[in-house]
Specification:
Elements lengths: L3 E5 L9 H8 L2 E7 L3 E3 L2 E4 L16 E4 L8 H17 L4 E5 L11 E2 L14 H15 L6 E7 L1 E3 L11 E4 L2 E4 L9 E3 H13 L6 E4 L9 H9 L4 E2 L2 H13 L5 H10 L4 E2 L2 H7 L7 E5 L3 H13 L4 E5 L7 E2 H4 L3 E3 L6 H5 L1 E2 L5 H4 L2 E2 L12 H19 L11 E3 L2 E8 L7 H4 L8 E4 L2 E9 L2 E9 L2 E5 L3 E4 L3 H10 L8 E4 L2 E9 L4 E2 L2 E2 L3 E3 L2 E11 L2 E9 L4 H11 L5 H9 L1 H12 L11 E8 L5 E9 L5 E7 L3 H20 L4 E3 L10 E2 L13 H5 L5 E3 L14 H15 L2
Parallel strand pairs: 1-2, 1-5, 2-4, 5-6, 6-8, 7-15, 8-13, 9-12, 11-14, 16-17, 16-28, 17-24, 19-38, 28-41
Antiparallel strand pairs: 3-4, 10-11, 18-20, 21-23, 22-23, 23-34, 25-26, 26-27, 29-37, 30-36, 30-39, 30-40, 31-32, 33-34, 34-35, 35-36, 37-38
Helix pairs in contact: 1-4, 2-3, 6-7, 9-21, 13-21, 16-17
Length: 743
């Protein structure tokens, strides 16, 4: 007969998520908690003191998992509940009772505890929660029932992601001070709630039952209150004076003012106990230490992901792996090789930078996300991406101290405005902005190139890397592949993890100058003046769609500004001419006007009130192909060939996109000069946001579940780039995965 489990207290914090774990494992279960006596599906409620008389609990259960502790009730009332629980187990012929206990049941003065250690004899020596746990454990041990095996599961301090943890008993924060209730040596061994659930599943499924399971990280260095506080709340607390308080406690005890249990509670503030869970790890074949998370690539996405992980998972082991270090290098300096074939697509060589911050340190970018206006007929996957962009846009911007509440405006049926924020020089390097190097929660592994993923089906089991010429194999619990669109795709192909064998299709935006506007940034009822927010620029653009392909057009300002042009010639032209210097002096008033507008008026100055409108359009996905080349790079790895062909269809799309923008300009009396149109390759410029590479997913859920324990993060996962610089559109996918998908 199939085993059935009863979970008592399934609504408690510690039990949250266990139901989903059981469902995934195919375990049949019921739940019981306090309330009116009734059954709702597999949830039964009733009087906990009369559990054994509850008519809704009519079935026989093989195992009972008991989380119930009656907070705010006396020890005697908790014992009364245990009496009913044991009677229930006897009446229903339960074979196994799993009692969720606590490591707080052990004596405060114990120096070492394992699964065989005795618990505190007198519950009066403990306070509150611990006293109840001690009394209940003793009652269960002293009242055995024939045929019932009782297992005490004793976890350490339980944490989980994004948990709003109470400071009670750990930290006192008053008047700007943070006082640790203990010192640097006070122990506080931790355990992740999800590991408790995995342990319970194994305990239930294992025939041989132990009497005690210690569920905690046994690392002596990690398991302290001080470490917990610094990671959880990012503060360096003031520690209590151990010797001074112990002398006072002993003195008060010796003269009879303090009782033994008072003294032991002071001892508990400075608990030095080491909890050894080695036997539990062995019998369950489960590592109870920190989860090991690897982020591969310290560029834009790797920096953002690492910072997010450190916030959501402050007590896990996060390793950020990068092929470079603090010195930014180009592709050739790093030793990578790529070949551009059949088309002048230079995005690979020009846009790739290696080291902390990656391309973000060099190129910056605009923070733009998708909305329901972007795509006329999106796929289910694209719909999911749009929904997440809307959900997380404000949260992403807030991480840069920015906000964007400006609504999009529909101009025509296939044309609307979109506002974005161009990151300032001070924000654009995400590695620096997020202070990754100073974050003690993140371990940096530099000068290490990952060359292969090891896997068992959808489970990634390890990585092979080269560090200072040495080949190594490392294993983690969770992986984030953030090493750029082309390198990530190359890695997936070389590891046999992509659907394509040896090649991968992709596309990019292609650009062309279309108009020179001579009547200023007010076009119709829309003002396209760029504004300053902090040190960043708030930008506006046209976005449209023709034949299922998106395009955008935005002002390109001050390219003809003589002051900046001549200053650049003077500084970098290596030739001094008196006439050049005179031109610079002559145009100082324009420079002053530029500074006045930017600093005082908080808006972009436009030289002569003229600017260019550039049109960028999604090239068809079949335009691009990445394939492997047998030429080896400096690491002994295969290089890549990149081909982005400018198809006749692309020229047709440009023609239609230009017509859309031109129609709007004409209708609104904009004075402009139309620039020559050409479909020759020299007139196109790539903007280095490849998309459509690793993107054949039916939905966002399908994308998240492509691997059991790895997320691929780059613009290549987008099936469409839309009318935006698409880097920021991927960040909400990381937010959703880390916050709500990853366990």
């Amino acid at each position: 007969m199939e085993k059935k489990i009863l979970i008592c207290g399934h609504r408690s914090f510690v039990a949250t998520g266990l139901i989903n774990k059981f469902k995934t494992a195919g375990i049949d279960f019921d739940c019981f908690s306090r309330g009116k006596e009734e059954r709702n599906g597999n949830v039964v409620t009733g009087d906990v003191f009369l559990m054994h008389q509850n008519s809704e609990l009519s079935e026989n259960y093989d195992t009972v998992v008991n989380y119930i502790l009656l907070k705010g009730k006396s020890v005697e009332e908790n014992i009364q509940y245990c009496q009913s629980l044991l009677q229930f187990c006897k009446d229903k012929h339960v074979k196994h009772l799993i009692q969720i206990s606590s490591i707080s049941v052990y004596p405060n003065e114990s120096l070492e505890v394992d699964e065989t250690s005795a618990i505190e004899e007198d519950y009066h020596n403990k306070g509150g929660y611990a006293s109840i746990k001690v009394a209940v454990d003793h009652y269960l041990m002293e009242h055995p029932i024939g045929g019932l095996h009782v297992s005490f599961v004793r976890p350490g301090y339980i944490y989980t992601k994004n948990q709003d943890i109470s400071k009670a008993g750990i930290l006192v924060s008053k008047f700007g001070l943070n006082i640790l209730l203990g010192d640097k040596r006070t122990t506080l061994p931790l355990i992740c709630r999800e590991k408790i659930h995995e342990a319970l599943l194994r305990i239930i499924q294992t025939d041989k039952k132990e009497s005690v399971y210690l569920l905690l990280n046994k690392d002596k260095e990690e398991g302290t209150k001080y470490n917990f506080v610094t990671r959880q709340w990012n503060v360096k607390p003031i520690c209590l004076p151990y010797f001074f308080l112990m002398i006072i406690a002993k003195g008060l005890k010796s003269i009879g003012i303090a009782k033994q249990h008072h003294y032991l509670k002071v001892v508990g503030l400075f608990k030095r106990t080491w909890f050894n869970s080695a036997k539990t790890e062995q019998v369950l074949n489960l590592d109870l230490g920190k989860r090991k998370i690897a982020v591969i690539g310290a560029g834009t996405y790797g920096s953002y992901t690492s910072d997010l992980l450190a916030s959501v998972y402050p007590h896990e082991d996060i390793t950020l792996i990068d092929v470079g270090d603090s010195r930014l290098k180009t592709e050739s300096e790093m030793g990578y090789i790529s070949h551009v074939v059949n088309a002048p697509y230079e995005g690979l060589q020009k846009a790739r930078f290696f080291g902390y911050g990656g391309a973000s340190a060099k190129w910056g970018g605009q923070l733009l996300t998708f909305t329901e206006n972007d795509f006329a007929n999106p796929t289910e996957f694209m719909k999911g991406i749009v929904a997440l962009d809307i959900k997380y846009k404000d949260r992403v911007l807030a991480k840069f101290g920015l906000e964007n509440k400006i609504p999009e405006v529909r101009l025509e049926h296939n044309l609307f405005t979109k506002t974005g924020i161009w990151l300032s020089y001070f924000h654009r390097n995400l590695f620096t902005h997020f202070r990754i190097a100073k974050n003690k929660k993140i371990k940096l592994l530099s000068n290490s190139r990952v060359i292969k993923f090891l896997n068992e089906g959808k489970l990634i089991t390890g990585i092979e890397l080269i560090q200072h010429g040495q080949h190594k194999t490392l294993s983690f619990d969770q992986y984030f592949l953030t090493s750029g669109a082309f390198e990530s795709s190359r890695l997936l192909v070389e590891s046999g993890l992509s659907k394509e064998k040896g090649t991968m299709t992709f596309s990019d935006h292609l650009s062309q100058r279309a108009f020179k506007v001579k009547s200023g940034p007010q076009m119709g009822d829309q003002d396209f003046t760029f504004h300053v927010q902090g040190a960043s620029l708030v930008t506006k653009r046209f976005v449209g769609e023709v034949d299922g392909y998106s395009f955008y057009s935005q002002p390109i300002c001050n390219e003809d500004f003589p002051f900046f042009r001549d200053l650049k010639k003077l500084l970098f032209g290596h030739k001094f001419r008196a006439g050049l210097l005179m031109n610079i002096i002559k145009n100082i008033p324009s420079c002053v006007a530029f500074a006045w507008n930017m600093i005082i008026l908080k808006r972009m100055y436009i030289y002569k009130n003229e600017f260019y409108l550039q049109i960028d359009i999604e090239a068809p996905r079949e335009s691009g192909k990445m394939s492997m080349n047998n030429e080896k790079d400096a690491f002994g790895e295969r290089s890549v060939d990149v081909d982005l062909t400018i198809m006749p269809k692309t020229g047709e799309l440009f023609t239609k996109a230009r017509a859309c923008v031109k129609s709007y300009l004409d209708k609104n009396g904009v004075v402009y000069e139309e620039l020559p149109f050409s479909t020759s390759a020299e007139k196109y410029e790539d903007v280095y946001h490849p998309f459509g590479m690793f993107c054949d997913f039916n939905s966002v859920e399908d994308y998240f579940q492509r691997f059991e324990n790895m997320l691929v993060v780059n613009t290549g996962v987008l099936p469409r780039a839309g009318g935006i610089n698409s880097t920021c559109a991927v960040l909400p996918l990381v937010e959703e995965y880390v916050n709500n998908v990853m366990e």
